[in-house]
Amino acid sequence: MGAGGGGEFIVSVREREVVAAVLPLQEHWLPLSNLDLLLPPLDVGVFFCYKKPTNLTFESMAGVLKKALAQVLLSHYAFAGEVVPNTVGEPEILCNNRGVDFVEAFAEVDLEDLNLYNPDDTVEGKLVPEKKHGVLAVQATELRCGGLVVACSFDHRVADAYSANMFLVSWAEMAQSKPISTPPSFRRSLLNPRRPGSIHPSLDDMYIPVNKLPPPKDPQPDSDYLISRIYYITAEQLNHLQSLASTKACQRTKLESFCAFLWKMVAKWAFIQNVDKKITKMGVVVDGRTRLTDGDEHKASLMDSYFGNVLSIPYGANQVDELNEKPLEWVADKVHEFLEGAVTKEHFLGLIDWVEAHRPVPGLAKIYCSGTEDGPAFVVSSGQRFPVSKVDFGWGTPGFGSYHFPWGGDAGYVMPMPSPTGNGDWVVYMHLLKGQVELIEAEATHVFRPLTSTYLNFGSN
């Protein structure tokens, strides 16, 4: 299968049930941390594709998934609860073992014909469930060939990707009757604000209380819209980008080099749209777990298992024409510069204090919202720790897995993840404006190659 086709198929629901923790749980309230409170109510999707196993039916695999889910919810009890507002209107988790909506479905398509390059057609609303209740929803879909797709949607206010990855690995370990390698910790005191707080002025450039947001832009009748695509980038191309973005004196990381290349492509699109004097912004999601430990081994072990959001989104803002004209190494320097200020313990402690100073008014990363004078904006979130090979429920490792996050709003979202081929390639989930995607496909197809079943070795089982 090439990059086209494979989107026109019907998914029929066979069964719906609610899976709760296998033992009763003491009902209690779990507050969200200050870093959780920076997240708007967004649901994140993630899915895994499995080839047909030799000796298991779909019914038996669904049974394994549900039994293991009921067991893993004992330790990951936040995923079995509900998010409800407290007396001042802030969200909290009611840990009441409400359970997880679990859907069993059948899709009239073979795995090798599933067009993963265009998840808008094949994944959205078909394979990744729409979460209607609770914190987590799961869908297991049998494919016509006997393959299987396991997908989840979860409330981002409760978990970041690091936490979701922990849960997915624990779920798979439980399915294979293994002990959980990283039991989750919900110790909110790890992220307590300081007394008195200390807030660096740079945080007011990065975050904004929602009551001070600029008015939303009026949609233009011919305005572009966001679409999702999945590509792969070869290890060879990543090394080439890194060499172009680095100098003899300074080696840039692959992520910095990738971000710089993508930022230049988005700036070029904006330049063609005649918004060359406008500012274009790129944010990069930073995980604060290792930053907050600052060499303290005990704190490091606590943060390793911490379940919740420990994220910041620093961003760079440069004029479109400048990004368009300057060489890749100059843009990579700019990426490195804005990241440098946010990869420190003080940045995350200050961010916790910033939220505390504005409560109960929620805050939001400024990169999410753009004013009328702004050009295009997007966020890159590295998924290099995405544990595809560890999400094995007993019928083999996934042939493919990806996050799926068409989050709405004005800003784009891009997540590079390790390829399941294990050869150093990357898989990239991209949610950008249609015009930006078209330019990238016209001018950078040597870097961004549409994901195909041939690349994933999804031939007939």
TrEMBL record:
Domain of life: Eukaryota
Pfam families: Transferase
InterPro entries noted in UniProt: CAT-like_dom_sf, Plant_Fungal_Acyltransferase
GO molecular function, one term: acyltransferase activity, transferring groups other than amino-acyl groups
Protein family (similarity comment): Belongs to the plant acyltransferase family.
PANTHER family referenced in this protein's UniProt entry, alphabetically: HXXXD-TYPE ACYL-TRANSFERASE FAMILY PROTEIN, TRICHOTHECENE 3-O-ACETYLTRANSFERASE
Protein name from the UniProt record: Alcohol dehydrogenase 1
Organism the protein comes from: Betula platyphylla
